[in-house]
Predict the structure.
Amino acid sequence: MEDPRTQIREQVSALCARFPGEYWREKDRARAYPVEFVAALTEGGWLACLVPEAYGGSGLGLAEATAILEEIHAAGCNGAAAHAQIYTMGTILRHGSEAQKSAYLPEIAAGRLRLQAFAVTEPESGSDTLSLTTRAVRDGDDYVINGAKVWTSRAEHSDLMLLLARTTPREEAARRTEGLSVFLVDMAEAKGQGKGKALEIRPIRTMINHATCALYFDDLRVPAANLIGEEGNGFRYILDGMNAERILIAAECVGDGRWFTDRAVAYAGERRVFDRPIGQNQGIQFPIARAYADVRAAALMVEKAAALFDAGQPCGEEANMAKLLASEAAWAAGDTCMQTFGGYGFAEEMDVERKFRETRLYRTAPVSTNMILSYIGEHVLGLPRSY
Ligand SMILES: Cc1cc2nc3c(=O)[nH]c(=O)nc-3n(C[C@H](O)[C@H](O)[C@H](O)COP(=O)(O)OP(=O)(O)OC[C@H]3O[C@@H](n4cnc5c(N)ncnc54)[C@H](O)[C@@H]3O)c2cc1C
């Protein structure tokens, strides 16, 4: 029987064919948001894949969502402009009230509301999320937010933002994992407060085209009705969503790895130096073969992690390993592709250098390699806790 994902893969590839290298190069040069690509994915219903049918989505599983993001990347496109729309809504779905779910999920599924922004990281706390200091203090029917976030991607291109803030000072919280809460921030409403001073968004120019920003909150008021779940339990809600995020990002890395190896194979077969295709030299052939094997192995771990997630089984170990292996495999495949292309790898028009820059992100975000190794060491292997 045909894998139902084959059709998804074919349809997504056909959509991506409308957005060739020139499109991405132009956006990259201008550091411009790929509005048309995101609109095409939205219209195709792809970003609503995980929203249940009852709320207007297609009710697919994570296995299908990984196929969508892998194909986007295997086609040379970049899902980073839109991927959060797929999984960030999971926090509302799993922990929101019925009123929040019916108010937001159908709008998110239809693409009328963009939930693309997810504000966790702060300038001081970095990977140590539990040390974050952005404060949310209850005042009547609102919470008043003060503090700062960094690397909040797509904040300028999102109608809603999930925000993790501290509602109980760290020293007063019963446990170190308590005292943080999740809020759904209406960005247009927030930008209008305090003559635009309550929420300041400063774009950060980076080595890739990623629409990422620093945010500053100065007495930003968020209605208490926009608190997701219970006050103080926000860290648990965010952790719940992280496995899905890691598996999906890993699928993007597998897609990148496929793109790099496909390109490297094609070029190594065509490019003739010393009267022979460069791919005839084992010094060129073997690294490509190794990259291919590593990407295929990472894909199996993504598949395993997604299957566990869809079956409602614990998948922290597999989700983390998938992200680790896939991000490393994509990076090695990228380096091999650069080496195969020789000097031409540096030319913008080949797209290799752009993809090489883009895939580097996933060794650092959404969680860096060391944090994953530490998770495996401590939580899987039972080694002593290091921090
Ligand atoms: C382009 C981009 C987009 C992003 N988008 C978002 C977003 O939308 N929302 C969001 O909330 N965040 C986002 N991030 C933030 C990202 O998740 C963080 O950069 C990442 O988690 C690492 O945090 P940090 O940069 O503060 O590094 P740090 O925490 O300062 O760490 C620096 C280095 O030290 C290592 N390190 C730290 N402590 C230890 C330890 N105990 N043992 C071993 N190694 C250690 C880390 O692994 C890392 O390699 C984004 C980042 C980038 C660059």
The pocket of flavin-adenine dinucleotide is lined by residues 118-121, 126-127, 151-153, 206, 210, 212, 361, 364-368, 370-371, 374, 387 (CB under 6 Å). The mean pLDDT is 97. The first strand starts at residue 115 and ends at 119.
